[in-house]
């Protein structure tokens, strides 16, 4: 078997922004809406990075480069479907309806960032690598037992596929035939560990074979490929045809988090080459080539995005500073003696971040 041939990368718009496939399942209006989202999310992510550098928020994990996968996947879901992601999936949550300022609150130490608004069917972001994959299987299984017409989607990284939780989740989902879609955001790196040191198999999609479920590999920087594939997959999974594993091949443009410096471990030539496929300029090139976006449109969308991001920052910064005592809430029903002592000490010590 040649896995790269068995699991070819699905692509509709290439790196230069040229149409190389069928885009009949996505309207011009939908594409322009995606573009606005991608611009806003990219600006937000860059602003969050700057805020951390200015000491206004704590550690932040940027998602730049992965917006097309996150937005394209969520766009194909219904409001009732579950979303279970990691710390890098705030773009997916924003598109699903979580207010844009939530990741800022999260990086400022506010527990409220873990409280997903009622109208959004999502779990709080998960930091324990791969844990959310099992949670998604549980939610999907529950939906099946309760005969709800819902699917669950879980996002996770390439590194997460080395965890036992990933394999347990795929096995259980396959045995119970639950309506879950596994979306691996293969951004090529697990902090400083490259993909080829993480696994010997050339693709992640081929792992579906071991569990006898469908595996699909697609260009995660091509929002049209992501959205159209997801629409097809959601329909099949919802109709009870079992789980699907999607490998979205993408790239983390920035650092792992604001605490990381990728220039210490990424070869510059490879970095340069991978960057060329990034999702925002690709979509912009395609829209411009097709006459769907003018220079004026680009400027006004940039301006609107800036206002939206400014507002999000103002909203987050209007919260009173988080107290370190909040750290002790929402984890244990009852605190142990030593945690009670730590909480008392933290209250004497002052605010959470600075
Ligand atoms: C169970 C567990 N082990 C280790 C870590 C430390 N850790 C945080 S992020 C990360 C790498 C994850 O890489 P990947 O799954 O590719 O996701 P990405 O950060 O690239 O989105 C590791 C090992 C953790 N958070 N949880
Ligand atoms: Mg990764």
TrEMBL record:
One of its GO terms (biological process) is branched-chain amino acid catabolic process. GO terms for molecular function: pyruvate dehydrogenase (acetyl-transferring) activity. InterPro entries: Alpha-ketoacid_DH_E1_comp, DH_E1, PdhA/BkdA, THDP-binding. The pyruvate dehydrogenase complex catalyzes the overall conversion of pyruvate to acetyl-CoA and CO(2). It contains multiple copies of three enzymatic components: pyruvate dehydrogenase (E1), dihydrolipoamide acetyltransferase (E2) and lipoamide dehydrogenase (E3). Residues 258-279 have a biased composition (Basic and acidic residues). Residues 257-279 are annotated as: Disordered. Residues 39-322 form the Dehydrogenase E1 component domain. Its cofactor is thiamine diphosphate. Coiled coil: none annotated. Keywords: Oxidoreductase, Pyruvate, Thiamine pyrophosphate. Heterodimer of an alpha and a beta chain. The gene is pdhA. This is Pyruvate dehydrogenase E1 component subunit alpha. Its EC number is 1.2.4.1. It catalyses: N(6)-[(R)-lipoyl]-L-lysyl-[protein] + pyruvate + H(+) = N(6)-[(R)-S(8)-acetyldihydrolipoyl]-L-lysyl-[protein] + CO2.
